Amino acid sequence: MDGRLPVGRHVVESSGALMLKDVKPGDEGVYNCRVENLLGSVNASLNVTVQFGPHVSLSSKRLLAEEKQNVSIACNATGRPSPLITWSKLVGSLAGDGIKAQDGTLKIYNVTRKEGSIYICKAESILGSATDTVQLMFFSPLRFTVRPPQEVTPFIGSTLRLSCSAESDLSPTTYWRKEGKSTLSLDSNVLLNGTLVLQTIKKTQEGSYICKASNALTTIDAKVKINSPIATSCSVIKKYVSSVSGNYVIDPDGEGGLAPFSVFCENDR
Known about the structure:
Distance between the termini: 99 Å
Strand content: over 45%
């Protein structure tokens, strides 16, 4: 107590008795009674302990998680005397090595979809009981069904298509970005199936591109490195690279053929 009697909820009777109305947990404390007259005074004190029924609160009312993760839900209970906390499942039992309920916290290890259900926390004492529920929903992990290659070396002037798609129980979205950039260049676009299309490849498109797949729970990504594009002929270099004559590296037959070699291109003619 802070030294003041509960405002509006106490009465001191003519007999000297103190009556508290609508007792609350905050009324707990030591109360002092003082009686005095012309001959002196006397004091008496009383320690008041307030008992009240259980009340429960959960750390979450609804929890979504991917399979194979570990989840925990804390059930906090108040009451005097201290209530006993137990967990149960709306349908079925809590049996299983991967399910533990200790000190009011429910823990489920390496979850599977079959463990998704409504779970009930109950706090009980001699003054009654209280319950609260939490819905646990578990989904298959987000995963790539098609990943782009880790590295690719395109031809200058060609069109490059990089496929990327993902799946999960929760509908995923797929998007692309270039590393170090917030948006893709104007000469690129992403198809509805998640494929990144880079038109008319040129050196400025060299770099790392990241495909990201997201759902309501998580995000995964896959990175592809686009190497400096190579030319197949001097005419390609003149059209897409430079109109200045000089030595350039070309690769006429592409990957798997002869190694790229240097030639002099008369591009200013």
